[in-house]
Inverse folding.
């Protein structure tokens, strides 16, 4: 069964710290891995990773995929209180359709 | 605003009742996906429709059903509600039949009392 596992499930840090969130996957016919940020309601898209070793970057956030290790990390540097959210990773599961298989999420809390 | 519209935003109902959740996809998107997010289960795929036809099914209970109408809006019907059905229900849409470019609506929070 396809699955995505995230760690840690919860993380509390101080503003200014750097955090690394982990995602591992077991997905048949892997094509991509996606990261989302979920604050109060809808998940919002952060990154889609398809190639191993190529870092995607957006401001203080960056992510990289390791296909050999079947994993991905999401880094956030110089964290701010506005980064507090649930971070979800997901992999498309193909069986004639592209549903997303989500990890449990990492609840990140940034304290001032 | 993501362009995916879900109504209602909140719903409180009693056990045994039936409710209908509505989703209007982003303009131009043909695929609609329904997900359930509960505290202990994370985001779980329920069902996908593409241009009016059911495309894929996840762990959707028999008490739940969905459809997509000719104008591409979709409805998720939940019947014989149980306390455990309390959750956030998200709709997402995409342009392609094989996904890509998912956009989520803001969700409907269902509370069964």
């Amino acid at each position: 069964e396809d699955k995505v596992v995230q760690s840690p499930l919860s993380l509390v840090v101080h503003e200014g710290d750097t955090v690394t969130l982990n995602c591992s996957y077991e997905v048949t016919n892997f094509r991509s891995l996606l990261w989302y940020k979920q604050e109060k309601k809808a998940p919002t898209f952060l990154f889609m990773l398809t190639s191993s070793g190529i870092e995607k970057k957006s401001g203080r956030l960056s992510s990289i995929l390791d296909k050999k290790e079947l994993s991905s990390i999401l880094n956030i540097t110089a964290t701010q209180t506005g980064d507090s959210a649930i971070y979800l990773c997901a992999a498309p599961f193909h069986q004639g359709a592209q549903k997303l298989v989500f990890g449990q999420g990492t609840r990140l809390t940034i304290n001032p | 605003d993501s362009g995916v519209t879900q109504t209602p935003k909140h719903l409180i109902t009693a056990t045994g009742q039936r409710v209908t959740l509505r989703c209007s996809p982003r303009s131009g998107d043909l695929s609609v996906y329904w997900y359930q997010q509960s505290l202990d289960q994370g985001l779980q795929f329920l069902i996908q429709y593409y241009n009016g036809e059911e495309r894929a099914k996840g762990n959707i209970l028999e008490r739940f059903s969905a459809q997509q109408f000719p104008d591409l809006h979709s409805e998720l019907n939940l019947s014989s509600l149980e306390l455990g059905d309390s959750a956030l229900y998200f709709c997402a849409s995409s342009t392609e039949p094989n996904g890509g470019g998912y956009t989520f609506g803001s969700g409907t929070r269902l509370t069964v009392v």
Notes: Chain B has a mean pLDDT of 91. The interface with chain A takes residues 2, 4, 31, 33, 35, 42-45, 48, 50, 55-56, 58, 88, 90, 94, 96-100, 102-107 of chain B (CB under 8 Å).
